[in-house]
């Protein structure tokens, strides 16, 4: 792995143990596992933001309207 920035992260003991075991089984470092998990989370966040932007102009429905529509269609 390329030289990265150092940060202190505190894990719950059971989570830390699970990470150490996974690292050993996958022949990756804890840093590699954490970096990949953070990358995936940030990618999911970016995808969510993109979806929100695409749907921003859709009409908003209130919860009550949705319930009434579901009742009208026999879904409730």
Short précis:
The protein has 76 residues and is mostly helical. The protein has helices at residues 13-26, 30-55, 63-72.
SSE layout and pairing:
Layout: H1 13-26, H2 30-55, H3 63-72
Radius of gyration: 22 Å
Indicate the mean pLDDT.
93
Taking pLDDT < 50 over at least 5 consecutive residues as the criterion, the unreliable ranges are: none
**Strand runs, count:** 0
- Which series of helices and strands comes N to C? HHH
Strand content: under 5%
End-to-end gap: 54 Å
The coarse silhouette is: elongated
Secondary structure class reads: mainly alpha
Number of helices: 3
Residue share in helix: 55-70%
What's the quaternary structure here? single chain
> Main sheet?
none
What does this structure look like?
The protein has three helices and no strands. The radius of gyration is 22 Å and the shape is elongated. The chain is mostly helical and 76 residues long. It has helices spanning 13-26, 30-55, 63-72.
Structural features:
76 residues, mainly alpha, elongated
